[in-house]
Amino acid sequence: MRINYAYKFRIYPNQEQQALLTKTFGCCRFLWNQMLNERKRVYQQLKHDKEKLYTYKYKTEKEYKVLFPFLKEVDSKALQSVTRNLNTAFQKFFDGLKNTRKIGYPNFKSQKNKQSYTTYNTNNNIKIDFETKRIKLPKINTWVKYRNEQVITEPIKHVTVSKTKSGKYFISLLVECDIDISQKKIIKQSKIEAFDMSAPYFLISERIKMNNPRFYRSEENRLKRLHRRLSRKKKGSSNRKKSQLRLARKYDTISNRKNDWLHKLTTCFAQEYDAIILEHLNIQGMQQFNKGISKSVTLDFSWAQFVSTLRYKIERNGRHLVLVERFFPSSKLCSHCGWKNLELQLSDREWICEKCSTVHERDVNASKNLLKEGLKILQTNNITIIPTVGTTGSYACGDGVRLSIRKQSSKKQESTAFR
Ligand SMILES: [Zn+2]
Predict the structure, then answer these.
(1) Whole-angstrom Cα distance, residue 29 to residue 22?
(2) To 10 degrees, what angle do helices 303-316 and 238-272 make?
(3) Per-residue model confidence (pLDDT) at position 51
(4) With 0-12 CB in 10 A as exposed, 13-18 as middle and 19+ as buried, what is 168?
(5) Ligand 1 centre distance from Cα of residue 345 (Å)
(6) How many angstroms does the Cα of residue 340 sit away from the middle of ligand 1?
(7) Which residues are CB-neighbours of 322 under 8 A, at least 6 positions away?
């Protein structure tokens, strides 16, 4: 199977190189905004004449280069990728209109946000010297230093250069590689776990109850203080810039800690379990949950990121990730007798089955139902499941996750409780 693989290196451009990169970021941003503006203008003019609108020929980046000659000074492949990215953004937006999944209209790019550009490898114009740890990028005539120990053997497809708000530079190298994946066809039930993604916990199953370390929450006061300090600084002053940088760095640190935790968790899951069963994410439900809640909460509960990270790790290990469809009423069914509690509210954390009188903890019950449903799906996909006889099965993963979380979590927070 051919898969795309991305490597991310931090680079350390010198002042001259930084100036060139800034220029490229600026030109790409400028072109993007010009093209987006053209589209908006044309739409306003021709919105009543659909035929003309659909066949309208927008200016290409070559025509823009004639109009604005300074664009010729930067990497032409980077400008080409702007056109490509804008087209993709519009395609996604239009597809979103047809589906239930809403995707926003492309935005203008601002100098204040993260800067980036993508360039393609043609005729070996991107070179890496792994011995001296330097990379050569198109139109940047000198070698740029980087820091990373990995050696890439596959040919590079494209490179994205970025600068974060905190002033750090990175390159993300995309390669295509061939890997041999043989999917497991026979799995033990003890190696299968179903989790409910719930608000009070991050993940919860019959055997595992995991607390979310809440990295953003634990730093909420410091973040608020930094935001407050920034708001007091005069616009355009150097003190404001310094303040902005300090805030961006704080966000960086927290997001690094969170990502580190998330990666350790997903790696451990992908190694320990043969199949993981989750609920298909309900975006609208999550938006409801997000309503009126501070940003620190939304940033701390990032299931979408968790699922996508877990998915590629699991697939590369030849294991299974089962996503149970959204309309499956995992919370409402009694996992013991199958009675459906139609009156169950989001606020009900515990309920009693009217038919068999079992007392249910909401999320645990949901995970039990997900497990049943997930096992069915696995079986319909011709996976043989060896049932567990007698006791509870494997807890092996617990220790690894607990360790990595304990290291990361703040003193105030309780680490993780497994049961
Ligand atoms: Zn029941």
Answers:
(1) 10
(2) 40
(3) 87
(4) middle
(5) 17
(6) 8
(7) 275, 276, 277, 278, 374, 377, 378
Q: What is the pTM of this model?
A: 0.80
Mean pLDDT of successive 10-residue segments in the chain (419 residues)?
Answer: 88 96 96 96 89 89 94 94 94 83 86 92 90 93 92 91 94 90 90 86 87 87 94 94 93 93 94 92 58 66 87 91 89 92 88 93 93 94 85 45 40 34
Q: Which two tokens stand for residue 379?
A: 């079986």
Q: Can you tell me which residue has the tokens 């070698």?
A: 143
374 alpha carbon – ligand 1 mean position (Å): 20
pLDDT score of 397: 45
| SS3 label, residue 155 | coil
At 397 the three-state DSSP class reads helix
Distance from Cα 398 to the centre of ligand 1, integer Å? 30
Q: How far is CA 49 from CA 46, 54, 145, in A?
A: 5, 9, 53
Instruction: Measure the CA–CA gap between 206 and 361, rounded to whole angstroms.
Output: 10
Rounded to the nearest angstrom, the distance between the alpha carbon of 119 and the centre of ligand 1 is 59
State the Cα–Cα distance between residues 24 and 70, nearest whole angstrom.
Answer: 11
Roughly what angle, to the nearest 10 degrees, separates helices 76-98 and 15-46?
A: 40
